[in-house]
Each structure stands twice: as C-alpha cells, then as structure tokens.
C-alpha cells in the first residue's frame, strides 16, 4: 500500500450526537474528514425525548461548549422552550433543560456538516480494516473500502439492534431505521468484548388528538438563559409542555397485560437502565404508587408528533392504546409511533484508553452509545474528545484528557475506562464527587483554555473568555475590600448575604456584568464547602489512588482468588480503588497492597501481557 | 516469580497466655502447617496427620526430629483452609506441661520451617483472607489482649457484630437521606425532598450516635484498662498503697519525702475491671530539678487518668494544699484515700473531708492492707455502676474517631438546614457522614447512594 493513499484523515462512522461532535472537531482542526451514515437524512436525530440538558447533563453541554463544541449553540438556536431545574437547590446542581425542535436541530447540524466541508457518505459500515494492529479504514456493505488514517466509531444503538413491540421482534434500529449488521461480528473477531444493553421509548401521539385543556401547562424559565457561553440569553416560556398523571385504571391495564410485555417474559436479554424504567416496570416494582407523572412535549413546530415522557413501554400497540385511553385528555389519542424497547450491542468500555482510542488497535476510536452510555449529551462529549484525540494522535500532540476534578466529562471518562458498567451509563450529579465545583456557570473558566490549546476555541470565543477572566480577577480583588473589619468575600459566606448588599460599600462591584458578579459570589459563598469537598475526596482516595504496576501477569500471582485474577486481567485497573470498583474483594486488594509494599509486583515477562 | 513467597509463609506461636494454666496451645497457620505438624507429631492411631479431616481432633506424640525422643503427649486439631479462622491451613497442638514444653514444641516447628508470628498476625491473616471484617479483626485483637472478663464480654459483643450492625443501621439511615436529597437533585420531576423530614431524621441520628459515644470512655477503658492514678503530697504513703493494691513490692518505699520521681505504671485487675495503676511523685513546690519534673508528670498523669485516688496521711490531716488539689479534681472521678490508719492518729477531719468530697472517700492502710479490697471494689463499682455496663460501646480509638466524625457532620448538616443553605451543601455534609461510617464497614458512598435511589424511588422518564 502506498504510504499516502488515504482518502481521509479522520473517518467518523455514524451521524448522531457523538458522530457530529467528532467530525466537527476533526474538521475544525484542519483534518480531511468524512462521515459515513446509513441514512443521510438522519443527522443528530432524537429518537427518545426531544430535549437536551437536565441535572448533570446541562453541565456536560456547557463543558462541550467551553471546549469549542457545537451542542450548546445548536440547542440555543433550535430550542422551543427551556426550563431551569433545581433552581432552589444550589448553584452547582441548578440545570437548564431545553426542549428542542428536533427537525430544526437536525437541519442545523446538517448545515454545519456542509459548512465545515465534511464529506457525507451514505452506506453501512460492515468492517474496520486493520493491518499490523492499526486501523486504516472501513469496508462498506457494497464491498467498497474507504481508507482513513483514523476511524471513529459512533454507531449508537444500531449494532445488531432489535426492536420489541409486544411479541413483535424487528431487526431494526430506532423505528424506521435499519439495524447495522456485520460490524459487531468484526469487532468480536478482532478480539473485543461486546455486551448487550436495552433501552426504550414511549409512544408518540398526534398533537390534534389530545384534549390539551385537560392537561396542566408546565411553565418555562422566567429569566433569560442560554446553554452556550456564546449565545445571548433569551426568555423561553412557550406553550409546548404539559403534564398529567397515570391512574389506577392505567395500572390495571398494565397488570392485566403484563404477560404480553417482552421485558417480563424473558424475550429481552439486554440490561436496561434503572434510571429509565418502562411504565410496566414502574407499575410492577412500585405497586404502592397510585400514579406516575407524565409530560407531553411537542417535538417540533413542523411536525404533529407529541412525545410522552414517563411512558416508555414495549407492550403491544393495542395495550398502549388501552393505557392511553385511561388518561384524562387522551380518550381519543392517536398513536403516530408506538413505544418500543430496543436491544443493541455495545463494546465493553474498559477496552478504551483515556483518549477513547481502543486499546490494542491503533487509530480506532469509539464514542457514544457504542461505549455503553446513554444520552445525547454523554454521546456528544465523547464524540468531541474522540475527534480531538484522533487529530492529536495524527499531529503527534498531547491528547486532551479530562480528570474527575476538572469536568463532568472527566467523571464520565474515568468511570467508563475503569469501572464495570452494568447498565447504560447516564450522567448523574451524584457521580461527581467534586460537584460543587463542577458548575455550568464556570465551565468556561474550567475548560476553555484546554479547548484553546488543542485549537478548537475560536478567536471570538477566546477573546470573550479572556475578557471575562479579567473581570473575574478584578471582581475577586474587589471582594477583598473590608466592611466593618471583615472582607466582603468572608461576609458573603453567610447564606443570607447577597453580593448586591455590598454595592454601596464597594461601588465598583456594581458595574461588573451579571455573569461575573454571580460567579464571584458563588465562589466566595461556597469557598469553604468546595475546599471541604476536595478534602473529603482526597481522604477517600488516599489509599484508593495507589497505583498498580502495569504489565503484571496476574495469572501467576497465586495468592489471589481466580475471580480476582479474572477481573484484573479483564479490566486492567490502574489503581487499588479501581480494582475494588471492578469487584476485586477487599481482602484481595489488601494482598495486592501488601505485595506492592513488599515490592513483589514487578513487570511480568515480556510478551505475556494480558 | 513466585509472589506467594514471603507473604503467605507458615507462621507459628503459642496461642495461650504466658504462664497460665496446665495446657498450652501452639498454633500453626499457613500453606505448610500440615506438613510441618506431620513431621513433628506421630498420631497414636498410626495414620498420617495430613489425612485428618478438617475440624477433627486426634491424640499424638510430639517427637524430637533428631533423637526421636518424646517431648510431650498432645492433642491435635486440624482445620483446612477456607474453614479455619485465618482462612489458611491451621493446626493447633495442645500440650500438657505448660509453657516450657510449649516453647520446645514451638522451637521444633521453627526448625521445620515455620516462622514466628508477629503480634496479631493470625488475625491479620484472617482479615486478609476475607474471613473477618476490619471491625471484627479489631474485636479479636481486643480479645487476645484483654485481661479480664468484662472486657472480654464487650469485645465478644462487638465480635458478634452488634456494633457493626448498629453502625450499618445508621449508615443505612444516612444513605437513605442522601438518596432522598441526591435523588431529588438528579430526578427533580419525580422525587421531592421534604426538609422537615430530613431534619427529623438527622436529629434522631444525632441522639443515637451521641448516646453511644458517651459510652466510649467506658468502652475504651474496658478494652484498654481503666487508668487509676495515685496522687498526694510527699510521703503520705502512695507508693506503699501502690504496692498493696498490686500485692507485690513494685515501688520503692522510704521515709524520705520525694522518693518517687517517674510515673510507675502497672496493669492489674479489680473484680473484673482491667486497671492500669499509676504511682506518682508527691506534689510539692521544689527547687530540685528532677523532683520538679516528677511533680509535673504527676499532675499530667492525674489529669489524663480515668480515676484519681487522692491520698491523705491520717497522721498529718488535711492541709491547705490538699484542699486546693481536692477542689481541683472534684467531679472528675476523684476518690480521697485516707491511709496509715493503722497508726490510729485520726488527724484527718472527716467532717471537713465530707464537705469537700461528699462520701467519695475511704479508710485504708498500706501497711496492713486494711480497706484495700474495699477500695478496689469501690473503683470497680464506679464503672459497673454508671449506666448499663453491658451497653454497647466503641472499643477502639479508630471506631470512636469515625463515630465522632460522623456526628460532627450530622451536626453540621442540621446547622446548614437551619441556616437555610441549599440542598447541595447539606448533601455534602451527609456524604461525609456516610463516608465516616463506611470507613467502619468498608463500603463506598456513591455506589450505595445510587443503589438506594433506584430501589426506593420510582424514577425516570
Ligand atoms: N504505718 C504505716 N506506715 C506507712 C503506711 N504507708 C506508708 N507508710 C510509711 O510512710 C513512709 C512513706 O511511704 P511512701 O509509700 O514511700 O510514701 P509516698 O507517698 O510514696 O512518698 P513519695 O514517693 O516520697 O511522695 C514510709 O516510711 C512508709 O513505710 C501505712 O499505711 N502505715
Ligand atoms: Mg512514693
């Protein structure tokens, strides 16, 4: 093969949320980029609910934005309404959630693909081409080969996917889309471990078939907001979200028909997420609950579909109708797409390294649901990092790796590569031990310099960042002023003091922009708690962070149990803490610690690496 | 590379206390325990020791390797790995003839390849092999080192995991609260956290943990020995009493004031109460450097001890100095001890004494041992008397530390609630509280919380 015979520098497989961010990042960094998709009309689709953000996820969206990604800008441009969740629970956990016009969103992303000069190829990738342990392109279903110096797999839920609606089983991707065949087998042949997950979605119903006046209107946020640091905040209260509850009759219908649910009769083998149970799951597992809340979200201004949040189901369509009819306002509901469960292959994510490159196969990266995650935001974050790191590899520059203390994305990355993922992984604020520090509002301060370093942050964004950073410094200095013997920043530690209370005493404060004021106020108010959270995290990590040497042949360590050895070989934990989290017993962990202390663990003989 | 070596060799030690009883037990633990025991013991029934069933006993003779000479007749108990206390192969050899013979048997085991066990090493191995938790390991170490029955009883209760069960219950309650708070943050549409509910549960937890921590001094004392300190002016008869209380001639006694300089410590046992008895230098102003240092140490020892025995000389009576010291230590488990009563001088004015310390005083004589047993009983009853001596109490500094940290965090959470701090801050304190308790039980906070959220609440879209 001639050395330079590559068609592309970066080839992205998949056009979902991970694929878009990966391709955009690569193109923006000057790479010749291609995106292969099974359906060129389906760009950044939203097969589940038409919303972006929420607790933990909005923070990720802000982080992607701070790094120079697209998701926040696209959402701000195409949102129909935004809501502020956890408004009263503290600045760190406050999160925006946007309900977007899914068609407009898709069109926006499609435009970007054109704008950035990304080559869009329609076709089904069936094989990753590998030579000498290096990926050099992909083969398509028609037998053609596209050569690329790096390949990023962002195949979502399409790998060998099957859809369940009652007893109906369809070899298919999300409704109407084909399932991706062959690629799973290729990955398995290459020696990678695959798993099977399931997820589900709820029925869509026709807008005009709902008696809206019998539902309760959900109000949008009452102050101007935006997800991106580069967007101008807007007011968002539109008439697009309503809610109501299921009732005993609904639950009755479900119980009567439970034997027709593939989730309960054992047809579905994949593991589903606990945080997103189907309605039949909720009714069966919580028999005491008399009702469950449902939200009705209009999916697009151009379409008549309404998404029902809270009613994910794989019961047959006739039962779905019976269920709907029990709910006030839905007595004449018309289903446009029934709810369904979907089962798909994923690649066990401990097989990737911290750059999202697959260990043992150079040039191949994976991002998004193929790594066992769930959610548009989680996928987008991985896409961005995988895209950037594919480029960093080609340029032989330092990769972009984020840590748990820096970003929710760092938490996501660390959990993926070093714990056992037992259900589709969704971000939750509970997962981030530094969550008081990891706020939406300071994502730019945390990450924009890193985005600038790799070259993803535009001059315009960088200048805005520098201006804000400068004003923040100025604000922090102003907070050193004393009022009756005490520094303003210390007075702010009291929960009932606001920064406005000090405008008279320190007039220069009053002229700082709002976003700077609120940020320095939070910093001062929460300083003690953030330090504490740090200390607490360090304390927990004191022993857990002890490094395990690489390249040990665990199979030769006889005092460990077989189970432990299996886990060590499979997951290659890098620290004692990770060893514990992949299920190594505490006693075996102690044995390992003891051996570390005694210097008994060195590198194993060459070539015997697991 | 054989990493087993060095970590899991075979250890041996005498498992019974030195110098007690007619039977001594030599214990071997490790991969070669059977092989080593097999080479030193010939079973009476003629079969090989290695073929004995786990948890079976047999009669045998311990023979010296070289000469084949009989050292002792013994009973062997074998336990196979996994079913033994350490999780390794264990052989226990019960020898007659006390320590001397046991020492011989032990040295034989060393010659055959066993290594002397370090302090607590059997327990450490049990822990490493996953046989017991850290909590239980501590309790076992207490049993091994405890010198009295009361302490054994406390340790036994902890071994059965009662403290562990209680800590787990609290931990469960905190994780429930955390799941409520964190759950409401992560799933705001489906979970609602009522602040009043949280406050109520926190107050309850605070009371429960406080009650157990109040018993900590007792628990610690029972597992480590109650410190009882003899103080008083020079020459009043402290050292004589010290000797009388120990029933042996431990401290130097002379009629020169200022005889005792350093603090002397001896362990003993008074009616089931493990005691560390301290003798100190006589309290007085002095220009002599060594004695002045001694006086300083005496005061420190008294202040840090659990019980102060303030000694008064019945041939001299109460002076202003005595009043000063007695006043200082009132309310601190301080008992006035009037000694040299055998000389019938009755110089101590009992009415004055009762004004200062009520009925917390006794008559004794270091010379005749008069009243010495009553004094011991009185001290013992100070511990048996308060509250319920069988009530559960933490028995190690580590346990106390974890519980205290948990309590601090719970109090902080209550304070944050009252001050109107946001949920994320309250969750922070609760997370730290759960973390402190989980240090006792060895779990991880975030995983537990998530599990709880999903099992308790019906969340999701
Ligand atoms: N008859 C009689 N003599 C006693 C008794 N107790 C102590 N003595 C005598 O009192 C003198 C001092 O006794 P110590 O026990 O050394 O007194 P101390 O308080 O330890 O003295 P310092 O160490 O110097 O502070 C010695 O001569 C003892 O024999 C007692 O109960 N009866
Ligand atoms: Mg003395």
For this entry, give a set of tags.
heterodimer; A: 610 residues; alpha+beta; FAD/NAD(P)-binding domain; Arc Repressor Mutant, subunit A; DNA polymerase, domain 1; seven-stranded mixed beta sheet; six-stranded antiparallel beta sheet; globular; disordered C terminus; B: 461 residues; alpha/beta; Gyrase A, domain 2; Four Helix Bundle (Hemerythrin (Met), subunit A); Rossmann fold; 3 domains; six-stranded mixed beta sheet; 16 helices; 16% strand; binds guanosine-5'-triphosphate; binds magnesium ion
Describe the fold and architecture.
The complex is a heterodimer of chains A (610) and B (461). Chain A has 610 residues and is α+β, with helices and mostly antiparallel strands. Chain A has three domains: 8-198 and 344-449, FAD/NAD(P)-binding domain, CATH 3.50.50.60; 458-540, tRNA uridine 5-carboxymethylaminomethyl modification enzyme MnmG/GidA (Arc Repressor Mutant, subunit A, Orthogonal Bundle), CATH 1.10.10; 543-597, DNA polymerase, domain 1. Chain A has 17 helices and 22 strands. In chain A, a hairpin with a 2-residue loop joins strand 7 (125-131) and strand 8. In chain A, helix 2 packs parallel to helix 9 and helix 12 (459-478) packs across helix 14. With 461 residues, chain B is an alpha/beta fold. Chain B folds into three domains: 11-133, Probable tRNA modification gtpase trme, domain 1 (Gyrase A, domain 2, 2-Layer Sandwich), CATH 3.30.1360.120; 140-215 and 392-441, tRNA modification GTPase MnmE domain 2 (Four Helix Bundle (Hemerythrin (Met), subunit A)); 222-381, P-loop containing nucleotide triphosphate hydrolases (Rossmann fold), CATH 3.40.50. Chain B is 47% helix and 16% strand. Chain B is built from 16 helices and 13 strands. Chain B has helices at 33-40, 98-111, 121-128, 134-145, 149-159, 162-186, 195-214, 216-224, 238-246, 289-304, 320-329, 350-357, 372-385, 397-419, 423-441, 445-456, and strands spanning 11-14, 24-29, 41-43, 56-63, 70-79, 90-95, 115-116, 226-232, 264-270, 273-279, 307-313, 334-339, 361-363. In chain B, the strands form two sheets. Chain B has a seven-stranded mixed sheet with strand order 3-4-5-6-2-1-7, with helices on one face. In chain B, strands 9-10-8-11-12-13 form a six-stranded mixed sheet, sandwiched between helices. In chain B, strand 11 (307-313), helix 11 and strand 12 form a beta-alpha-beta unit. In chain B, helix 5 packs across helix 8. Chain B is flat, with a radius of gyration of 29 Å. Mean pLDDT of chain B is 82; it is low at 1-7 and 385-389. The interface between A and B is large, with 64 and 43 residues. Bound molecules: guanosine-5'-triphosphate and magnesium ion (MG). Guanosine-5'-triphosphate binds next to helix 9 of chain B.
């Amino acid at each position: 093969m001639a050395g330079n015979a590559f068609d592309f520098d970066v080839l992205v497989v998949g056009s979902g949320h991970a694929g878009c961010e990966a391709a955009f990042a690569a193109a923006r960094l000057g790479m010749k980029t291609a995106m292969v998709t099974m359906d060129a009309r389906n760009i950044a689709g939203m097969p589940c609910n038409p919303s972006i953000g929420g607790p933990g996820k909005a923070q990720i969206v802000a982080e992607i934005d701070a790094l120079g990604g697209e998701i926040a800008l696209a959402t701000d441009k195409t949102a129909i309404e935004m809501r502020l969740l956890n408004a009263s629970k503290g600045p760190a956990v406050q999160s925006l959630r946007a309900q977007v016009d899914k068609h407009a969103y898709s069109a926006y992303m499609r435009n970007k693909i054109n704008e950035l000069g990304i080559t869009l190829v329609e076709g089904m990738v069936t094989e990753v081409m590998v030579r000498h342990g290096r990926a050099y392109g992909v083969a398509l279903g028609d037998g053609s080969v596209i050569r690329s110096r790096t390949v990023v797999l962002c195949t979502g839920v399409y790998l060998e996917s099957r859809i369940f609606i009652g007893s109906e089983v369809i070899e298919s991707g999300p409704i109407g889309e084909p399932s991706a065949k062959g690629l799973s087998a290729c990955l398995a042949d290459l020696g990678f471990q695959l798993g099977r997950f399931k997820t589900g979605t709820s029925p869509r119903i026709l807008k005009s078939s709902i008696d809206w006046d019998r539902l309760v209107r959900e109000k949008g946020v009452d102050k101007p907001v935006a997800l991106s640091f580069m967007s101008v905040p807007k007011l968002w209260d539109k008439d697009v979200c309503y809610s109501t509850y299921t009732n005993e009759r609904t639950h009755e219908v479900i119980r009567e028909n439970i034997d027709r649910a593939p989730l309960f009769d054992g047809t579905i083998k994949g593991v589903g997420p606990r945080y997103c149970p189907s309605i039949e799951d909720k009714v069966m597992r919580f028999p005491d609950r008399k009702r469950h809340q449902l939200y009705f979200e209009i999916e697009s201004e151009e379409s008549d579909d309404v998404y029902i949040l809270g009613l994910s189901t794989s019961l047959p369509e006739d039962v779905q109708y019976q269920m709907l009819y029990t709910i006030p306002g839905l007595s004449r509901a018309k289903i446009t797409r029934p709810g369904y469960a979907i089962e798909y292959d994923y690649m066990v994510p401990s097989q990737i390294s911290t750059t999202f490159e697959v260990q043992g196969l150079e040039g191949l990266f994976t991002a998004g649901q193929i790594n066992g995650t769930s959610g548009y935001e989680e996928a987008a974050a991985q896409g961005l990092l995988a895209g950037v790191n594919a480029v960093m590899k080609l340029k032989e520059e330092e990769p972009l790796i984020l840590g748990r203390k820096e970003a929710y994305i760092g938490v996501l990355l660390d959990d993926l590569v070093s714990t056992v993922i037992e259900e589709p992984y969704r971000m939750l604020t509970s997962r981030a031990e530094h969550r008081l520090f990891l706020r939406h509002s300071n994502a730019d301060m945390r990450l924009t310099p890193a985005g600038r370093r790799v070259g993803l942050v535009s001059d315009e964004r960088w200048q805005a960042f520098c201006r804000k950073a400068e004003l923040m410094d100025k604000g922090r200095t102003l907070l050193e002023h004393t009022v009756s013997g005490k520094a303003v920043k210390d007075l702010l530690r009291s929960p009932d003091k606001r920064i406005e209370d000090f405008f008279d005493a320190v007039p220069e404060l009053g002229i700082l922009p709002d976003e700077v004021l609120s940020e320095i106020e939070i910093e001062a108010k929460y300083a003690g708690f953030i330090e504490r959270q740090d200390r607490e995290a360090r304390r927990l990590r004191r022993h857990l962070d002890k490094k395990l040497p690489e390249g040990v042949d665990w199979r030769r360590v006889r005092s460990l149990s077989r189970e432990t050895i299996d886990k060590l070989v499979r997951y290659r934990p890098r620290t004692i803490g990770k060893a514990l989290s992949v299920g190594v017993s505490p006693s075996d962990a102690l044995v390992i610690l003891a051996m570390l202390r005694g210097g008994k663990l060195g590198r194993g003989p060459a070539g015997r690496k697991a | 590379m054989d990493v087993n070596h060095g970590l899991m060799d075979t250890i041996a030690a005498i498992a019974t206390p030195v110098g007690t009883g007619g039977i001594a037990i030599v214990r071997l633990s490790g991969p070669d325990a059977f092989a080593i025991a097999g080479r030193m013991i010939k079973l009476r029934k003629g079969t090989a020791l290695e073929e004995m069933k786990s948890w079976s006993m047999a009669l045998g003779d311990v023979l010296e390797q070289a000469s084949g000479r009989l050292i002792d007749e013994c009973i062997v108990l074998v336990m196979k790995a996994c079913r033994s206390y350490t999780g390794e192969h264990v052989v226990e050899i019960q020898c007659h003839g006390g320590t001397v013979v046991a020492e011989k048997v032990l040295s034989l085991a060393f010659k055959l390849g066993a290594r002397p066990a370090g302090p607590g090493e059997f327990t450490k191995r049990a822990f490493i092999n996953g046989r017991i938790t850290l909590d239980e390991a501590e309790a076992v170490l207490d049993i091994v080192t405890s010198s009295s029955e009361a302490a054994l009883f406390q340790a036994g209760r902890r071994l059965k995991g009662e403290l562990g069960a209680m800590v787990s219950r609290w931990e469960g309650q905190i994780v429930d609260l955390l799941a409520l708070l964190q759950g409401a943050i992560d799933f705001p549409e489906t979970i609602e956290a009522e602040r009043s509910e949280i406050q109520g549960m926190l107050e309850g937890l605070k009371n429960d943990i406080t009650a157990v921590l109040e018993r900590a001094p007792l628990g610690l004392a029972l597992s480590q020995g109650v410190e009882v300190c003899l103080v008083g002016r020079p020459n009043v008869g402290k050292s004589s009493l010290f000797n009388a209380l120990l029933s042996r001639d431990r401290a130097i006694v002379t009629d020169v004031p200022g005889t005792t300089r350093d603090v002397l410590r001896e362990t003993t046992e008074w009616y089931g109460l493990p005691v560390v008895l301290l003798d100190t230098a006589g309290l007085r102003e002095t220009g002599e450097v060594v004695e002045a240092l001694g006086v300083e140490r005496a005061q420190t020892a008294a202040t840090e001890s659990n019980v102060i025995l303030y000694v008064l000389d019945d041939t001299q009576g109460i002076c202003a100095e005595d009043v000063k010291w007695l006043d200082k230590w009132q309310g601190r488990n301080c008992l006035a001890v009037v000694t040299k009563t055998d000389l019938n001088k009755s110089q101590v004015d009992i009415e004055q004494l009762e004004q200062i310390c009520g009925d917390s005083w006794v008559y004794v004589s270091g010379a005749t041992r008069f009243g010495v047993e009553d004094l011991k009983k009185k001290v013992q009853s100070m511990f048996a008397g308060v509250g319920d001596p069988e009530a559960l109490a933490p028995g190690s500094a580590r346990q106390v530390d974890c519980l205290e940290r948990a309590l601090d965090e719970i109090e902080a959470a209550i304070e944050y609630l009252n001050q109107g701090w946001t949920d994320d801050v309250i969750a922070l304190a609760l997370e730290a509280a759960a973390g402190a308790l989980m240090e006792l039980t060895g779990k991880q906070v975030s995983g537990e919380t998530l599990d709880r959220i999903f099992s308790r609440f019906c969340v999701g879209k």
